[in-house]
Amino acid sequence: MSAPKRLREYLVPFLQFCEVEKGLADNTQRNYRNYLRVFFAWLTKHTHEGLTPQELSAEHIWDYRLYLAQKHHTRTGHYLTKRSQNFYLIALRAFLEFLAERDIETLASSKVKLAKHKPDVVVGVGGFASGPVVAVAALLGYPTMLLEQNALPGLTNRLLALVVRAAAVNFEAALAYFPRTGFVAGNPVRPEFFPAQNEEANDRFTQPHDAARVLIFGGSQGAHAINVAMVEAAARLAASGIRLAITHQTGERDLDLVRAAYERAGLAARVEAFIFQIDGEMKAADVVICRAGATTLAELAASATPAILVPLPTATDDHQRKNAEVVEKAGGAIVIDERNLSGDAVAGLLKELMTDRNRLARMSAAARTLARPDAAERIADRVEQLSKRRAR
User: Which ranges of the chain does DSSP label H, i.e. alpha helix?
Assistant: First the structure.
């Protein structure tokens, strides 16, 4: 029988895939936090339990098993299981109903589930639903860990900071909220976002090409404010004399509106409701116009792509603005408040950037300094360390 693999060999690809998968089956699945909401993960031993006799072979007997509580199951759950066969997904629907009610049964249910599965480590990823199980686990003595993507942690993670044993953060600014347990790990992204070994991220700014490439997106449903600004900017950009090649993900709602605006202006543009291969588009772009969600910023850093960031003003605690300010301070982006967003503002910034390739190259290098290629490995290693402490 072959030796069991280390936990990180299973956890790393899961973190990279689940954190940023951009298109599973349809537009509603693009943002995993909307469709596949991972509330917490349990890592437990005895992974052979639950396998069919046909699956009980040496390669399927592992040291750990990953449990996920998810908001939705069905097609996405099947896809993940097929894509990453090292993991089994359990939809704890009854438990999530308790969590949604936020009553005393939530805590009782958390305790029951923990007693049933006897996890080695409990990992919370933010959101009110992860709070009870992480809190109960900590009180019962289980090793606990938080994953925090944003520069300003959410309320649940800020409260749990008092009881957990470790907290993996994306931005150094978040360390202030986890003074005893925090460490900078970064935000896992798929390897495809990083340049190939024989490819330099800055080549796009030094190599001549026919048109400046602009990528615009605003999440799976698009960003209406960004879409409207680009509609207003289209004629101004066409009159600027700068050759542009625009790729724009609009969402279904504004698809026809944006496509018609580019056509009237005579701009070369690929306009789609949804773009599946966003990693390739991002690596090819000279500049990206987008929101400032933590995962998007991690992808921009990995691909070393300059950006014009428009933080979502309704984001909880205005955390997107805090995220964007970190990137802007590093020199990798320009931030525009949505209240100041207009066609004139966008057209002026694009003209300014596209006529200064050296500035774009500097922004690209600055964005790359925020990249954490080993984020998944850092998180997996700390989880494994915590599990070994419990084993002792």
Answer: 7-20, 32-35, 74-83, 93-101, 104-117, 131-139, 155-160, 203-206, 224-239, 255-265, 278-284, 294-303, 319-330, 343-354, 357-368, 375-391
Q: Are residues 56 and 139 located together in one domain of the fold?
A: yes
pLDDT tens, residue by residue, 175-186? 999 999 999 999
- For residue 164, pLDDT over 90 is answered with yes
Tell me: do 22 and 144 sit in the same domain. yes
CATH number of residue 353's parent domain: 3.40.50.2000
Q: For residues 30 and 65, give the distance between their C-alpha atoms in angstroms, rounded to a whole number.
A: 26
Whether residue 275 sits in one domain with residue 251? yes
Q: Render pLDDT for 274-319 as a digit per residue (tens, 0 to 9).
A: 998 899 999 999 999 999 999 999 999 999 999 999 999 999 999 9
250 touches 227 (CB < 8 A): yes
Contacts of 142 (CB under 8 A, 6+ apart): 114, 119, 120, 121, 122, 390
